[in-house]
Amino acid sequence: MQLIKKIAPYFFAYLITNIVFVCGYTFLNWHFLIKPQAHFIATDLSDFWFPFILPPLLIFIVFYFMLRAVQPAIGNLILIGLTATAGISPAVIIAQHDIKTATGKLTTLENINEINQHPTTKYYKLNTYYVDKYYSGSFSCETSNRRSFDYTIFIACPILLNPEDTLQPYYTCWLTMHYYKNFGAFDESTISNREEGFWQESITDFEKRNVNSSNYLEALEHDFDYKNFEMAAHNSSKYSSSTCNYFFKAPTFAYEQRSGYKGEWLIAVFLAEQLALGSILYFLMKYLLKTGELK
C-alpha cells in the first residue's frame, strides 16, 4: 500500500500528460492545418512523426522535474519516457486521422470548373463530370531490400466537364488510383518478368474499371504519395506545372459512413494502452524504488 502511495503521483502525472497531449495536439493540428487545409507542414510529419517524437520528450521533461530531488539516472528517465510514449503516440496518431474524416466538409459543385469559386474542403460532390482515361499519366515506384521487393504503380486521370471536353490544352483536376504488389524476397533473375506481368495485370484492370461512378471525391493529403501522383500526372500530355493542380481519390464507401467506427476504436485503444502502460510504468517505478532512486 505504501508503494502505491509513492507511485500514484507519478502515474497520475503520466495519465494527465497523456490526456492533455492527445487533446491539445489534436486541437492544434485541426485548428492550424486541417481546418484551413494548410500544407506548409507535410502530412507525414503532422500525423505521424510529430506524435511519435514529441511524447517521449514531454514525458522526459515532466518526470525530470518530478524526480530532480533524487537525481535519477538519465538512462532510467529515458527508459520511462520511451515506455510511457507507447501509451500516447498510437492514440494521437489515430486521433489525427479520425478528426479529419469526422470534420471534413462536403462541397457540392455543378462541375469541376467551379472548384476555385469555393473554399477548399476535404470532400467534393460533382453533379456532372467525366474522368478521361485516354489522357491519363502513370508513374511507377519500387523499393527493395534483401527480404522484400515492393512495386507500386500510380495513375492520374484528368477530370473533365463531359466526354466532349477534350480540347483544353491542360487540366487541373485529377482522379488518382494506384496498384501495389509485394513480390517477397528480391530475386534479380526474375524480378523484371514479374514486374512486367504485374504491370500488364494492372493496366488490364485499369482499362476495365469504371472511373465515373463515384458519388463524391476526397482531396488527397500532401503526403509522400501525393508527390508520386503528381509525377504520374506530369507524364500526361494534359498536365501543366504552371497551374495549381488538384488531386482526388474516389472513396468506396458512402459519405455518411466515412468515419466508420474510428471513434469507438480510438477510445478502446486509448483505454487499453493506459491499462497496459500504467502496469509497465508501475513496475518501472517499483524498480526505481528498490534501487533507491525514489524514496
List keywords for this structure.
295 residues, alpha+beta, 8-stranded mixed β-sheet
Task: Describe it.
Strands 1, 2, 3, 4, 5, 6, 7 and 8 form an 8-stranded mixed beta sheet that branches. Helices cover 48% and strands 16% of the residues. The chain is of the alpha+beta class. Strand 4 and strand 5 form a beta hairpin. It has 2 domains: 2-103 and 259-290, no CATH class; 130-211 and 217-250, no CATH class. The chain has helices at residues 2-34, 43-67, 74-85, 89-103, 191-208, 224-234, 262-290, and strands at residues 106-109, 123-126, 130-131, 137-144, 149-160, 173-182, 217-219, 246-249. Helix 1 packs antiparallel against helix 2, helix 1 packs antiparallel against helix 7 and helix 2 (43-67) crosses helix 3.
In total, how many domains does the architecture comprise?
A: 2
Overall geometry comes to: elongated
Integer-rounded radius of gyration: 25 Å
Mean pLDDT: 81
Order of helices and strands: HHHHEEEEEEHEHEH
Question: Could you give a short account of the major beta sheet?
Answer: 8 strands, mixed
Low-confidence stretches: none
Structural class: alpha+beta
Distance between the termini: 14 Å
Helix share, percent:
40-55%
Beta content comes to 15-25%
Number of strands: 8
